[in-house]
Every structure is written in C-alpha cells, then in structure tokens.
Amino acid sequence: MQSRSGNQIREDFLRFFEERGHRRIHSSSLVPHNDPTLLFANAGMNQFKDVFLGAEQRSYTRATTSQKCVRAGGKHNDLENVGFTRRHHTFFEMLGNFSFGDYFKQHAIAYAWELLTSDRWFGIDPARLYVTIFEGDAQTPRDDEAEQFWIAAGVPKDRIYQLGAKDNFWQMGETGPCGPCSEIYYDLGLEASETGEDKPFGEDDQRYMEIWNLVFMQFDRAASGELTPLPKPSIDTGMGLERIACVLQGKLSNYQSDLFVPLIAKAAELVGFTAMSPEEASVSDAKGAASLRIIADHARAATFLISDGIVPSNEGRGYVLRKILRRGIRHGRLLGQEQPFMHQMVYAVRDEMQAAYPELNETADRVSKTILGEEQQFARTLQLGLSQMTNETLASGSLAFRLYETFGMPLDFMTDAARDAGIEFDMEGFERAKEEEQARARASWKGGSQKSASPVFTSLPKTDFEGYGKLRIEGAKVLALVKDGVGANELHPGDTGEVVLNATSFYADSGGQVGDTGWLYSPDGAHVLADVSGCTKPVQGVFAHRVTVRQPIAVGDTVNTVVDGAERNSTMRNHTGTHLLHAALREVLGTHVKQAGSLVNRARLRFDFSHFAQVADEELQEIEDIVNREILSNTKVETFVDVPIDVAINEFHATALFGEKYGDKVRVVKIGDFSTELCGGTHTAATGEIGLLKLTGESSAASGIRRVEAVTGTGSLQEFRRDFAVTRVVSSLIGGTSDSPAAALEARLSQQEEEMKKLRRELEQARMKAASASTADAASSAVDVQGIKVLAQRVAGLDRNQMRSLVDSLRTKLGSGVVVLGAPTEDGKVALIAGVTKDLTGRVQAGKIVGAVAAKVGGKGGGRPDLAEAGGTDPSQLDAALSGVPEIVGGLLA
C-alpha cells in the first residue's frame, strides 16, 4: 500500500471512475438547492436527488464527485463529538460514484474492490478488509446477489457479514427510492482497539472502521410501506476522504492525516500553544490537543460555509455556522488566546484545499473578514454575558443554558463562577434545556432528505416553457390538477389550486425572479377559465400555475396561457436592472462583491451582496450613476442558450447567480462588455427599456451582507414625485436659503441634535455632581466590620452606568473596603450595585453581598467577586436593606 496525500487520493478516486465512463461533476454548494428539508449538503447524492426521483434528466448516466459535506445541525449533528474522537467532523468530503439506471450491483462491487486492492490504485491488503450485506427482513429477502458478486470479486465468504436494516438498508426518506447496501470496513489493527483486546469484527468500533458504503437503490417505498422494484435500479456510493486518507497514510486517527496536521500546526501557532507537536496534538488525549483539533476542523467548516454564501446569524444555517465559529473561538480562549485568531485560519484552509476548490482563492479575503467580524462581535457578546451572569442564573439550568446559547458563555466558565459564589450549578436542568433545544432544532429540519414536493408532481413530464419569446400560447394540455396538496380530476368555480400544463408561457419562480401572473383562457379565447396568481416549479422542470378558478377545468382539457404583459415588462426591467446593479457594485466597491440573494418582482428589486461596511452615500450615488449611464446607452441585451457550462465560465467569463441551479448546458445573459451572468430569467431586449433605475435604500441584511433596493421604469417616476413633494414641504419649513432644501434641513437637524447632546451632558454632569456632593464625606461614614471598611449609601437620579462610576470612585476613596449603592428607579423598582476592592475578594464577594441585600427588597442578583448588580421590586425597604449591609458582610466573614 503506497502512501498518498489527501489531494492525490481525491484525484485518484475521480480519475479511476472517469476512466470507466463516469462524468466528473464538481461538488455542489453546501446550501442544498430547492430542498428546504435539508440543512446542509450531507452526502454526495444530494445534488442528484431529483435524478434519482426521476424528476430530472441529465445528459450522462454515470457520475463521480468529491462532495463538500457538513453535519453539524438538524438530524445529522456531530458537533459536540468533534475533536474528542478520531473520526467525527463538522466538515468532510464524500467521494462517490453514481449510476442513474446504468450499471448495478455487479459493476459497483467490482469497481470498489478493484480501486481499493489493485496495486495500480490504492493497493490495500485484502486481508484487512471486511464486507457487510443486508440480512433481509419480512419485506425484503437477504441480499444473496450482493454476496455472490463480492465473492466473485475476490472477497472470501468468511469476510462477508450480514447485518440488519439499521446498518444495511438505505432509504431517501419515509417514501421513495430505497434499497439494501454493502459497507466496506478496514482493520486498523490491534493498536487501534478500544480496550487492547483482540476482538473479532463487529465487536470493536475503533479498530474496524467503515470506509465505503455502496447503496443499491432498487425499490420504491409507497406511503403504505409497500416496496415495488424500480424500473431502472441505480447506484449511490459514499466514501469519506478523511477516513481513506487515514488508512492509506497508515494512521489511527483522521486528524493524523495530512488533511489536518498542517491546520493543527497553524492553530497551535495562532493561539500560542507549543506544549506538543502537531503530530502529537493530532492524536493526544490531552485537553489542549482536543482544542487544536476542534479549531482545525471548525476552520474548514466555517471557511467553506461562508464561501458558499452562508453568514453567521441567529437562525437556520447561519445559526449553526455561528455555533461552529464560537466553539472554535472558545477553544482558542481555553488555550489562552483572547485576541481574534480564527479569521487567519482561513488562509491555511485555502492553501491546503485550493487545488480541489480553486474558488477559495477568490473568496478567502471575504471569508476572513466575515470571521473577524464574528470574533469581534463574540468578544463583545461574551462581555455582555458576564453582566447577565447572576447567582439566580447560575442556580437555574434553563437560565444558564439561555446564557450559553445566547451569549456563548462557556459551560466550564459558569460552573467555576457558581463554585466561587458557593452556589450549586443546576447541571441537570442545563442538560434538560439543551436536549429540548436540540429536539426543537431536529423538528425544524424534520425529514432531512425526504421529498420536498407533493408526490402528485414527481411522475409528471416536464413542462415546455415557451415564455421567453411570447406571452401567449394556445392549445396547452392540462396534465394534472392539485387542490390542498392532493391530486384532483377537476377544479370548480371558486376553487384555488394548481394547474400543471404540458406547455406554458408563464415564467416560474426561480433565481430570485417571481413567477408571472395572468390568465388561463378557453381554447376559443372567449372566456377566462382561471386567474393565475403565480407559477412555481415544485420539481425540476414541472410548472405549477397557482389559480383561482372561474369556470370548471378538468385533467385533459386544453387551455390558452396568457401572461399579464404589463407585469412581465415591469419584472423584466427590474431583472435586467439587477444585472447592471451587480456589475456596478463590483466596479465601485470591489470584486469581492458577490450576490447573496435577490428578489425581483414587478414593483421593485432587492439585491443582497457580500460587503463589510455600510455603503457610503457618495458610493451609492456613483453606483446609481454608472447603472443609469448603461441604461441611457441602450445597449443590446444578448441571450445565449445551451452554452456548455465550462464555455460559459471560461470563455464568456459569466458570473453565476446565487440560488440558481446549473446543469451541463446553461443560459448566458450578456449586456455589452459591462455584465455577463448565468441566468434563466426574462430580460429586456435593450437596457434603454429600463427607463431609469433609482436606489431607494441600503441596509444590513446580515453580518457581512449588505442589501440595496431599487425601482425602475414608472416606479422610478413615482419615487421622484415623492421626493419632489418632500422637497416642497422642506422648503416651506426652512425658508429661503442658498443651500438645497435637503442640505438646509440636514444642517438644521444637526444643530438641534448638538443642542440636545449638550443638554444631556449638562444634566448628567449635574446629577453626578449632586451624587458626588452627597457622598463627599462618605468615606468617613464607612463602618468597620472585622477590620473591613463598609459603606452603604442611598443615591437618586443616577442610571446604572453612573452608579458603577460612583462605586469605582468610592472604592478609590476607601482604598480598601466594600461599597453598596442603592437607588429607586423611574419604573418603581430598585437598582443595587456592590463593589469590593481587589485585595478583599478572597474574603468576601460582591455577588454574595448584593444577593443578600436584594433579597430584602424583593429581588435577586449576583455577579463577579469584585462587582455585582441586582434589582428589587420594593423601594419601601431600600433604606432598611442598606442599613443591614454591615451585618451581611459580617455574616459572610464569619
């Protein structure tokens, strides 16, 4: 067995199947296209799902890929195990070969055995390989066929084991394609054993590692559970690159392979951890080693997720990305690095993986800036979390978990703080809250890879879209009707539902452009049969028209499709305007700008893009000027159809649009030398038809993502009319001036704001002066409690920030001692703050003091040993509570 680098293994795998007639397909995005049931791409077959379902046809019947995968949320969640085991990862690559009704078990098995054992390829000793087959059940017989093919390939019968449906029967979802599978295992040797005992296959998960799964899709499972043979059985295989690299490089852990060791070394350098070498860190059980493995793994996941358009957020995919990043950052902090470092890991990931994923060269800077922003925000959030960490929080598992989730407060940090405060941390409640949150996350993505459309649509032929050249077609046949998600033979007047036709002029929702509206007419054109409010593609190629029925429509009827021309034209103006806007943004802001989402309808356009700062007014004006210059030039908008994807990218230099799915042949929209993009939408014939584009807003859409909105055509005219009306009102208020009305109003508002700031500062200074005066002799009012100066004082008219400043001032005056301030608040409650000088925190803690005081005014609280805050609901007891502070301190010193 010849050792190979991870990059060479990937290339050898793909080349092996290319030589056997497979089309090499680039990895699809980690964001699954048109599959809301799936959180991330988690297997090689995801991008071929519609092909396996029969809803999409490709120009090839054999394919091979190295697919980017993430398992860190929803149904597949390995996050908490990553770094502490040999094989768990958030990001990994799945090597696979696929047959779409071409070859089946015999060839798949022969290919797998040849690649693994041939001296020309991986050259693995067959004596270290084991194979499993499906043992059969009440519905499906034992897979004797697979066993015979394995024997024919050269596997001894005593190396073939039968397992149940849990391990060796695969299904896409509750219904749909499914079938038995065979798994190939590698014996890592006795040194990899969990216990050091020489256990047989099947009794030691660490020693015997699964490296390849061959799925034989040969049945279709109905909703009743009944299985029927598929007319064209297919093959779907998956082999983890990290696992096969571990085998071929003679390692015991995936983290020891060259896919990880350089990243672990970079992580150690960035966090300043030099206690062990990268090789030791890749396999050591020490806590620091686990942290370095976590940083290396999470840097890979974050780099690829952000590169594919995901940004950190508080929901969905962005939330999982944020958890991955913060877990990596936290483990850097455990090793002593409190400064941002994770963003620099991006370049190490790029250097290791750019051979297979050249797009990382272009996205690395954007990804790094996004991560840096998240690191800085996390640091601020962590600091805010400290202020929320009260004794009450630490004593409540559900509240502590909220702190853990919302602020990323490390669990060990909270348990240490509870111990220091003499509080028992509610670990049981914390774990219960955590399990509930995980259950909610799983439920929100329930059905990981089930069909995302009604079964009614999956067996229908594709709709012939003729809408690029005309708004009306005649003689379209009704193929199917759907009402409330269920197929129907007829729709009646007043019904709402969906109509699928064999041909249509209606554009369907895609690439950010909304579907057309219009009407379905009777064949003679005399009667409107239904109003069409939109059009979608529930499965690839099938157009479903959303309708409100006026006259009966039945399956088999013939109709004429008529698109609302005015709405189509408005939408086209906005869509072509979007292409111009994208190009102008890149020209003004830089080529790092990438589309991150869009919406195009008749009324307006919205465009989200990657950028790290608010776009200045001057930049927006320049962008608007550039777009309108291109509009006024009336450049021809050219469309090229059925362009090979490699020609479109390499010769046309076309830009791909976010959210669009591209096959081998694509549609290219070219606007002179200014803009060239892959796009399936409808467009104007020339830019002059847009009329004018007016930007109406710029805002933040997410971390690292900005959003601009605009209108075109008559929408621009309406915008200018509104602006003109505002200008007239401003002129009447401001009066005559040499400046423009906008500039004059801005100056007036700025002047008033400065005056308000000045008054606020004077008020705050007056309050602080009054408070300071009332406490001028406070130090002399301090009482002695067992050798410690204790000062408790009532103040009024101060907010919490001012109270904290006053506590600091009083501690300085005391030199050494305890300060407690209390104040009634405007909402009828009580604010309390306690401070302890650093030299005394070993004897008495601020959190315990303020908690005891708060209890006397109907509240709770806690915090750090040197400074803590609390609140209460009973101001009438404030003076009594403050007078009891010396006694509280004495009790704590006892």
From TrEMBL:
GO molecular function, one term: alanine-tRNA ligase activity
Parts of the chain that traverse the membrane: none
Residue span, Alanyl-transfer RNA synthetases family profile domain: 4-722
Coiled-coil boundaries: 742-776
EC number: 6.1.1.7
Keyword entries, A-Z: Aminoacyl-tRNA synthetase, ATP-binding, Coiled coil, Cytoplasm, Ligase, Metal-binding, Nucleotide-binding, Protein biosynthesis, RNA-binding, tRNA-binding, Zinc
Origin: domain of life: Bacteria
InterPro entries the UniProt entry points to: aa-tRNA-synth_II/BPL/LPL, Ala-tRNA-lgiase_IIc, Ala-tRNA-ligase_IIc_anticod-bd, Ala-tRNA-synth_IIc_core, Ala-tRNA-synth_IIc_N, Ala-tRNA_ligase, Ala_tRNA_ligase_euk/bac, DHHA1_dom
Record function comment: Catalyzes the attachment of alanine to tRNA(Ala) in a two-step reaction: alanine is first activated by ATP to form Ala-AMP and then transferred to the acceptor end of tRNA(Ala). Also edits incorrectly charged Ser-tRNA(Ala) and Gly-tRNA(Ala) via its editing domain.
Protein's recorded name: Alanine--tRNA ligase
Species the sequence originates in: Terriglobus aquaticus
Taxon lineage: Bacteria, Pseudomonadati, Acidobacteriota, Terriglobia, Terriglobales
Gene behind the chain: alaS
